[in-house]
Design a protein that fits this description.
four-stranded antiparallel β-sheet, about 130 residues, alpha+beta, Pantoate--beta-alanine Ligase, Chain: A,domain 2
């Protein structure tokens, strides 16, 4: 009577192949998760930039030089750095906005997420 089955070597080779495949799939899943997180963070940062631009326009803020502040939006603390530059029109300025993550525990900026440029218009009051 002859018994057929897998040898120990065959089983170990199959397990090694399975382990390598599982590691590769785990790596792909981690990369997907990181890409999704980065995309979500970038989207949130764009909303922060849009909010800052809208606040400047609504409140008619004319920026001189540099300005930095921290805001908490969407459950995240952000560092907003703004820089103004003149244009050929005295009533229009270029505003560069840089948004970064801000770590409250270390009180330091972690990394930049997005940059944006917009043109701010000074509202000139007309005299009657």
């Amino acid at each position: 009577m002859q018994v057929r089955g897998f040898t120990l070597l065959e089983v170990m080779v199959a397990l090694a192949i399975f382990a390598i495949a599982a590691l590769a799939l785990t790596q792909v899943a981690m990369q997907y998760t990181q890409a999704t997180y980065n995309s979500e963070l970038k989207t949130k940062a764009h909303f922060v930039v849009s909010n800052e631009q809208a606040l400047m326009e609504i409140n008619q803020i004319w920026l001189t030089g540099l300005d930095s502040k921290q805001v908490t939006q969407q459950g995240v603390t952000w560092q907003i750095d703004k820089k103004s530059e003149p244009t050929i029109s005295e009533n229009v300025q270029r505003i560069d906005i840089h948004v970064s993550l801000f770590n409250n525990e270390t009180a330091k900026v972690e990394n930049g997420i997005t940059d944006s440029i917009f043109f701010n218009r000074r509202v000139v009051q007309e005299t009657p």
